[in-house]
Amino acid sequence: MKHIIINIVFLLGLATSCLAQRNELASLRCEMLDNPEGIDVSQPRLSWEIGSSKRNTVQTAYQILVSSSLEKLNANDGDVWNSGKVNSSQSIHVLYNGIPLVSKAAYYWKVKVWTNYMELPWSVANGWSMGILNSKEWKAKWIGWEKPFAWDSVTKFSRLSARYFRKPFETTAAVKRATVYVSGMGLYELYINGKKIGDQVLAPSPTDFTKNVKYNTFDVTENIQRGKNVIATVLGNGRFFTMRQNYKPQKIKTFGFPKMILQLEIEYADGKRATIVSDDTWKLSGDGPIRSNNEYDGEEYDARKEMNGWNNTSFNDSKWRKPELVQAPGGNLEAQMNELVKVMGHVKPVSIKEQKPGIYIMDMGQNMAGWIKLRVRGKAGDSVVLRFGESLKPDGELYTRNLRDAISTDKYILKGKGPEEWRPSFVYHGFRFVEISNYPGIPSVADFEGDVVYDGINTISIFETSNQTINQVYKNAWWGIASNYKGMPIDCPQRNERMPWLGDRATGAYGESFIFDNAKLYAKWLDDIEAAQKPDGAIPDVAPAYWNYYSDNVTWPGTYFLIADMLYHQFGDAKPIEKHYPSMKKWMEYMRSKYMKNDLITKDKYGDWCVPPESKELIHSKDSLRNTDGVLIATASYYRLLTLMKGFATMLGKTDDVAEYDSLGEKIKIAFNNQFFDKNTNRYSNNTVTANLLPLYFGMVPEQYRQQVFSNITDKIVKENNSHISTGVIGTQWLMRGLTYNGQADIAYTLASNKDYPSWGYMVENGATTIWELWNGNTANPEMNSQNHIMLLGDLIVWYYENLAGIKSDDKQVAFKKIIMKPSFVKGLDYANASYLSMYGTIKSSWKRNSNAIEWNVVVPPNCKAEIHFPVDKKNIVESGSSIESADGVKYIGEQGKQEVYEIGSGVYSFTIND
User: Fold this and answer.
1) CA–CA gap between residue 64 and residue 476 (Å, rounded)
2) Contact call for residues 778 and 766 (beta carbons, < 8 A)
3) Cis (ω within 30 of 0) for the bond into 424?
4) Are 448 and 347 in contact (CB under 8 A)?
5) Hey, how many other C-beta atoms are within 10 angstroms of the C-beta on 125?
6) Nearest to 815 by CA among 509, 562, 514, 459
7) CA of 221: how far to CAs of 267, 268, 310, 535, in Å?
8) What does the DSSP 8-state code read for residue 708?
9) Nearest-angstrom CA–CA distance, 202 and 531
10) Which residues, including other chains, have CB under 8 Å from residue 253's CB and lie 6 or more apart?
11) Is CB count within 10 Å lower at the N or C end of the chain?
12) pLDDT at 37
């Protein structure tokens, strides 16, 4: 019998904790989070993954041991928790149920699994450490300097230098364990004895700092030396010292000057303990090399101001000043459980060309978010200026009008001592092209490298087809999504915005979850949204609410509900629904009481945002026949949210709420159809695709009219729009699935593969390497034509995986416990190949046309099953060379529509579908 491999995952709301240990029987899947430190809940959840090539492998029981030491765990002493043998197939989100966990303690665990085939050996050890569970355990003080230095400028275009802190300390014995807890507002870098701690950048994750503040935890045992030590930090401005001070104070929220809190806890081998905390015994300087750092405008670094050894023990800090004890930001200190931002890749420039004497344009070949590392040699005082942009003017100059007033410029001043290397610390840019000026000598591509910067989230899937337009759109989507992960999902990485707009991610987050393991990021973002909710229930359009935009529409705040549902559907995590249900209910009642008249929601702000305009120079269409009634959008979307809330209430056992939502939904449906539906033409409102699609997809159309309404949608697309897209942000969220579920996957494929305006392929044909903000992003007014947005993706990525490839989770047995495999073998596509790393393991679906047959290879992970659909009679289906009726692990379910449906257990399958 083959070995069955167990992969262990520790989850706190999907926060993975892992130890990098392996053997021939078990391996840990550690891709989700490299730092397993600082878990700050009392009941973490544990998950594991079983790997087996044997068909129909199912877990029948498990046993979990949690120990206070690795030695005890290795001796099978679960002194913290021994679950005993539990007869259950549950392998994700198993709630810890041992003795109370102790603040700052380290724990170790392993699991034994029984399957329907065998009892498996214990897995390898895994571990995590607890964070600071009680605020009273924080002995450290917030320190900073509550004013600018003489060389700083606090204006609309602020220039504020970085602040440098250091604290010497001594150790007297061998260190058994050392842990540092740190939060630096707005951003920090941490050093011990001259070595940078961690590979994170732009930390910690941004929040509304008056509501909550994230701290990070690091095991620094190996960094502490016996005798003299020094711990040091640098503080950048980030979102804390806001980029535009004293500018539109009613719109832009500001927080103050940078500040930090740090607590280093040392446990010696002899049992004694010591604590080093931030207080006014530290030393501070603002006169270092980082002269300015501003997320919109860039970073200026003067290497002549470097303080050699400032973060090491031998440095003389007698001229540094004492920091001030400062007011805390106001928000609760919380452990950061979402991934840290990191340098996730590198891009080599493809060319450098002289545009004017002394002015060079560097092309990275890819629109990206991050920064440039440079290598340069020159004399002291020489300065290299890097100016960033997404595209070029016709004459080859850098195009920056679409950045608005973001200066987006880095400056490096040389110290003149041989070869020098530099990258910024506290800014990032969205760019493809870089204008290089003042470079001493002639720059070459070998002197530069692009660092790709986004949250440390692994790519968990592959997707490719025989259509190169679709492949490039998918690649562009990957780059756009990665570019806009910055501890929160932002809209764009380049201009003076970079805001976490809710509407951009409503369905987008769902599609992203197929590409990236984004569960922790979005769980964190739901907390940001809840924190931004007003006492009366209002939810903002941007959260954290750095901008004071509470426009009381339905579609943008509705993202709050859709993402909670996504986390449950894709990752099996019901906690966000349970946690946020009261806030969701509060908002539903707020909108109902304030804006519902005659059972219709009368308030909308954005309409079907960014429909393709009639002129390619326009940002928004002015043609009323292209635009959808805002009351229709608001009411239909509210009805959709009622449907979700009914499901949430059912899950949580809130029967009174279920009845209330049911009753209200029926009233809204009747009023909606009375107001907008024309029975003579079978059209809703002015017959836009969005006007008809929303009620059809949301289940509001009376059954006897559904086909006629859908015919109006297809007629509009095919006849009036020449098989091109005509929807904006709202309609596109449901478009591809709406067409496919109603039997027109071929039309969806045409939309996906079009190359002319308006289409995703049009962006590709016009040189896009990410997704544009506008369908006409190459010609529209530069006030709003970001070339790195993802809001127009709608449900395209969902459609790629669920409908083209056939990898979809069941709605009831979620997180791919049961997989619905129903690919659309659309005309014109020769093959589709996809894999997806689910909570249970890797799912694969790969089909290819071959003469008069389709070869379809499928992998279902252990402890899962799949419902698999074939568009032909069973006599034309072969599995691994044999009739499907005699295939091992295949069970006939019946006929659905015009398809034959089977159930398969885990394993590898090879089907041949003969025409």
Assistant:
1) 43
2) yes
3) no
4) no
5) 19
6) 514
7) 9, 10, 21, 45
8) H
9) 22
10) 208, 242, 545, 546, 547, 548
11) N
12) 73
Three-state secondary structure of 531-555: HHCCCCCCCCCECCCCECCCCCCCC
**Amino acid type, 589:** E
> Which residue do the tokens 């707005």 mark?
186
- Tens digit of each residue's pLDDT (9 = 90 or more) over 475-516: 999 999 999 999 999 999 999 999 999 999 999 999 999 999
| pLDDT computed for residue 32 by the predictor | 26
Please give the Cα distance from 580 to 332 (Å, whole number). 18
Place of tokens 């029926």: 666
Interacting residues of 82 by C-beta distance below 8 A, sequence separation 6+? 63, 64, 65, 66, 98
Residues of the chain with pLDDT under 50: 1-35
Q: Which amino acid is at 481?
A: I
Among 377, 337, 359, 292, smallest CA distance to 39 is for 337
CB 149 within 8 A of CB 235: no
Instruction: List the structure tokens of 142.
Output: 């917030």
pTM value > 0.85: yes
Give the C-alpha separation, 501 to 490, whole Å: 7
Looking at residue 898, its pLDDT comes to: 87
pLDDT for the residue 36: 62
**What span, in angstroms and rounded, lies between the C-alpha atoms of 483 and 301?**
24
Asked if 360 contacts 437 with a C-beta cutoff of 8 angstroms, the reply is yes
Contact (Cβ atoms closer than 8 angstroms) between residue 896 and residue 845: no
Q: Which two tokens stand for residue 85?
A: 């043998």
CB-CB contact of 316 with 172 (8 Å): no
Domains of the chain plus CATH, in order, are 5-129 (2.60.40.10), 138-338 (2.60.120.260), 343-453 (2.60.120.260), 461-805 (1.50.10.10), 813-914 (2.60.420.10)
| pLDDT reported for residue 19 | 28
What pLDDT shows up at residue 25?
29
Closest-CA residue to 724 (of 692, 687, 752): 752
Q: Are strands 341-347 and 683-684 parallel, antiparallel or unpaired?
A: unpaired
List beta partners, residue 171: 227
Chain centroid to Cα 173, Å, comes to: 43
Amino acid at 808: K
Q: Work out the angle at residue 44's Cα, subtended by the Cα atoms of residues 39 and 48, and round it to the nearest 5 degrees.
A: 110
Task: Kindly report the number of other CB atoms within 10 A of residue 247's CB atom.
Answer: 15
Strand 808-809 relative to strand 818-821, pairing: antiparallel
**What number of residues does the chain have?**
915
User: pLDDT tens, 269-325?
Assistant: 999 999 999 999 999 999 999 999 999 999 999 999 999 999 999 999 999 999 999
- What pLDDT does residue 14 have? 28
Asked if the peptide bond before residue 394 counts as cis, ω within 30 degrees of 0, the response is: no
pLDDT number for residue 22: 27
